[in-house]
Amino acid sequence: MIFKRTIPLLIVFGIGVLGFMQYYVPHPWSTAFRDEMTTWGMVIGGFATFLGIYSLSHMHATRILRQVPGWGYSIFVFIGAIGMIAVGIYSDIFGPLASGTKHEVDPFDWGYDNILIPCSATVFSILAFYMASAAFRTFRARNLAAGLLLAAAIIVMFGRVPISESVSDWLFNDRMVIPNLSKAIMDYPNLAAKRGIMLGIALGVISQSMRILLGIERSYMGGGD
Amino acid sequence: MRKSHPVIVTTWVTVALATMVFTFAFASAFAGPAGAAIAAATAPATTQAATGPATSQVTTQPALTASCVPDPNSFRAFDRPDDDGSGILVVWGQPARQPEGVKFIIQVARSKEDFQAGKFKTQEVAPSPKIVAKKKPNYFGYSEDANKLYYADITPAKLFKPAHPGPLTEQRLREFAEKHDITSGELDLALAVMAAMEEEKSAAQAATQPAPPTATAPAAFEPPKIKPVRRRVGMADRKWFAKFAAHLGKLDAEAVGAETRDINAQPCFFRLAVKLGDQMLLIERDGEPAVVQAAARENLFKWAKLNNLVLALIFSAIVVAFIEIAKRRPGLFIRKIAGLEAIDEAIGRSTEMDRPVYFVHGSGSVGDLSAIASVNILSHIAYRTAEHDSRIHVMNQDPIVTAVSQEVVQQAFTEAGRPDAYHPEDVSLTAYEQFAFVAAVSGMMVRRRPGAIFILGYFGAESLLLAETGSSTGAIQVAGTDAYTQLPFFITTCDYTLMGEELYAASAYLSREPRLLGSLRGQDVGKAFIMVALLIGTILLTAAVAKGWDVAWVAWLRGLLEAGKG
Question: Does A225 lie in the same domain as A195?
Fold first, then answer.
C-alpha cells in the first residue's frame, strides 16, 4: 500500500506544491526547476510512446487476427507505420539503410507533406459540412430561447460579411449599423458568458487541484475513490 | 445560545485574514511595484516645468528647445520587478513639447567614466502610446501618474552581448580538452573525424571544379606525397561525432547563459538624450549630464501576481473548510447536473441494445487537469459498464493517458468483480495526430454503432467532427470540455454537455463521497463570492462614471477589469 498509494500521493503533493509556487517565483532556480520537470516529462513521454505503439499494434493485430468488421483498415495502419519508419531510418544518414548522404528529397518529409497533410486537410474540410448540418438542426425557432439564438446568429454571421455594410446602408443609411450590432453581440453578451464560464473553470481547477493535492481525489490512480 | 462549529470559525478567520492580505495586495497593486519611483518622478515634475530643465546642447538647432527635454528629476532607473534578473526599467517624464520625429536616446555604460571615454551603447526609443508607463500596470500600477511617464525596458546582455564561442574548430576542441570538459581520447577521435570530413569536403569541391588546362610540356617528375597515417574513421565514429558536437554545443550554450547572467547582474549607468534629426539635447542635472544607475536583480516573488495568489488561497481555504464540514456533516445539498445524471441511463441503454460504450479522450496529456478529470470520470463509467456487463472502448490521443486509462479501467473492472471482462485491446492509443484520430474514431463509430458515447477532455477542431459523427449513429452522447470555444459545437450535437467546471465536478458528483461533495460546495460558495464582487464592482464603476468621480481607485478598478478584455 505504501508503494501503491502513500509514496505516489506524497510525490503528487510535493511536486504539486512546488509547481504551484513556481508560478509565483521568477528566480532562475524556479525556472531551472520548471525546465527539469519538463525534461522529466519528456523522458516519461518517451517511454509512454513505446507503450502507445505497443497498444496500437496490439489492438490492430487483434482485429486482423479475429477479422472483426473493418479489419482491412488495420492493415493500412501497419503499412503506413512500417513504411514511414523504414523511410525515416533510410533518410537518416547514419541509419542502417543509409546511403551515406542526406537526400535532396527526403522520402520521410515527402511522405509527411504529400500523404499525411493532404489527408488531414481532407478530414478538416469536412468540418464545413458538419457545421452547416449542426447549424441547420440548432437554428430552429422552437421556443423563445431558440428564437433569440437564431436571431443573434443571423446578425452575427451577416454582420461579418462585406455585403452587410451595403444592406445596412440601404436600410439605415449608415454602413456600420449591422456590423456594429454584430460586434456588440460578440463584445458584450457573448464575452460576459465566456467570462462566466472561464471564472467557473478557474474555480473548478482550484477545487480539483485541492482534491488531488490533498489526496482526496484518487480515481486517476486507479481503484476508484 | 448555539455554539459555533470550530471549523466554521476557522473558515471565517481564514477568510478574514486572507481578505486583509488581499486589501494589502490591493494597495500594493494600486501603488504598483514601481509606485515609489512614479511618485518621486512625477511630484517634482510640476515645479520643474515652470522653470524648465537645465540642458546642455550638443548641437545647436533652433527646433529642439529645452521644453522638448524631460524633467531631469523624472529620469530614473530601477530593477525590473517580478523577473529573473534580466531587465532594468528606465523611466522619464513626458516633455512639455514633442515635435514630430523626436526620439529619445538612452545611453548605457558600465561606469560613469565610460561615458567620457565614449564606451557606451545606445537604445533609441520613439515616443508612442506603447512606451507610456500606464501600459504596464504590473510594473507601474494603475495610478494616473503613470500616464505621464515613458519607460524603456533594457536588457543589459542585449547591449553588451556575451562573446559567441563560434564554430567547432580544432583550436576550440583543444580548449575544451584544456578545461577537462573532454578527455584526450575524445579529442583525438574528434580531430580525426573532423579531418576526414574536411578531406571529403575538399575532394567533393575538387570534383565539381573544371579540370586545369593540359600542359603541353611533359611534367617534371614529382616524388609521391606520403600521407600522414591517420586513424580510420567509420560510420560509427561519425555518428559519435554528431552527438559529441551536440554535447559541446550544449556546454557552449551553458557558458553563454552564465555569462549572460553575469552581464545582467552588473550595474549599468544611464544617460538620456532627446534627438531630432541632427540635433541632440542631453538631460542635465546640476550642470552635469544626469546619470542614473541600476542593476538587475533575481527576484524571489512576482508581486504583480500577489492578488492572484491571495484569491487562490482564499478559494483554497473555502474548499478545504467545506471538505472538513462535509466530513462531519454528510448529506450536503449539491445541485443536480443533468449530464452526469444521464450517465447511468446511457450505459443502461447501451447494454439493452447490446452495443458497446465509447469513451473518447481529448487531446490533453496527464499534465492537463481536463485530462485528469476525464480519467476520473472514466473510472466511474468503466465501473458502471462492468456492473452492467457491457463493453467499453476507450480512445486516446496521448500515450501517457492511454497507459493511465488502461490501469484505471482494469482496476474498475476488478472492483466490479468482473476482471475477466476487461480486454486490454479495448483501451488503446488510437492515433497521435489530430485528424488521424478523428478519422479513426469516426470510422469505428460508424462501423460499430455504439449505444453511448462519452466525449470528455480538451478538444480543438475535432470536437464537431466527432460529435456530429456520433450523433449520426443515434447514440446517446454526453460531452464535456473546458475549451469554451468548442462548447457550442457540443451543445448543438450532444444530448448532454458538461460545461467547463462541471467537467471537474463530475468525479466528485458521481462518487457521492462526502469529502468530494464538500469541495463542490466550496466551489459554489467561491462562485457566489465572485458574483458579489462583480456586482459591487459594477455598481461602483457605474456610479463613478455617472458622478464623474476621478479618484485613483476607480482608475485601478477600471484598469483591473479592462486588463482581461477580449
Answer: yes
Shortest alpha-carbon distance between residue B240 and chain A (Å):
10
DSSP chain A: -IIIIIHHHHHHHHHHHHHHHHTT--SHHHHHHHHHHHHHHHHHHHHHHHHHHHHHHHHHHHHHHHT-TTHHHHHHHHHHHHHHHHHHHHHSTTSTT--SS--SS-HHHHHIIIIIHHHHHHHHHHHHHHHHHHHHHH---SSHHHHHHHHHHHHHHHHTSTHHHHHHHHHHS-TTHHHHHHHHHIIIIIHHHHHHHHHHHHHHHHHHHHHHHTT---GGGSS--
Please tell me the predicted confidence (pLDDT) of residue B55.
45
- Mean of pLDDT over chain A: 87
Sign (positive or negative) of CA dihedral A8, A14, A20, A26: negative
Give the pLDDT mean for B543-561: 75
Question: Is pLDDT at B457 greater than 80 in this prediction?
Answer: yes
Nearest-by-CA chain B residue for A120: B435
Q: Are B450 and B356 in contact, with CB atoms under 8 Å apart?
A: yes
Q: How crowded is the C-beta side of B498, counted as CA atoms within 13 Å?
A: 32
Does residue B343 share a domain with residue B301?
A: no
Q: Can you tell me whether residue B82 is helix, strand or coil? A: coil
Q: Is the pLDDT of residue A102 over 70?
A: no
In chain A, the number of structural domains is 3
- Using a CB-CB cut-off of 8 Å, the residues of chain A touching B85 are 27-28
What percent of chain B shows pLDDT beyond 90? 47
Q: Residue B40: what pLDDT?
A: 44
Beta strands B496-499 and B476-481, pairing class = parallel
pLDDT at B12: 57
In a domain, A36, yes or no: yes
Q: Which domain holds residue A125?
A: 69-133
Q: What is the least distance, in Å, from the CA of B103 to any CA of chain A?
A: 33
B339 and B409 in a single domain? The answer is yes
- Tell me what pLDDT residue A92 has: 61
Chosen from B250, B262, B319, B432 to mutate, greatest number of chain A CBs within 10 A: B319
The better pLDDT of the pair B2, B425 is held by B425
Q: Do B287 and B395 sit in the same domain of this protein?
A: no
Q: Which residues in chain B (444-473) have CB-CB distances under 8 A to chain A? A: 444, 447-448, 461, 464-465, 468
Q: Hunting for cell 527526403 — which residue is that? A: A106
Among A115, A133, A151, where does a domain finish?
Answer: A133
Contacts of A204 in chain B (CB under 8 A): 482, 500-505, 523
By Cβ distance, the residue of B299, B376, B434 closest to A217 is B376
Note whether B300 and B402 are same-domain residues: no
Q: Does the structure show a pLDDT above 80 at B15? A: no
What is the reported pLDDT for B134?
A: 86
Cβ within 8 Å of A, B 58-97: 82-85
* Angle in degrees, 0-180, between the axes of helices A7-22 and A28-66, rounded to the nearest 10: 130
Domain span at residue B105 reads 6-162+265-309
Whether B409 and B457 share a structural domain: yes
Q: Is residue B382 part of a domain?
A: yes
Name which of B399, B492, B504 is nearest A48 (Cβ-Cβ).
B399
Are A185 and A155 within 8 A, CB to CB? yes
Same domain, B286 and B391: no
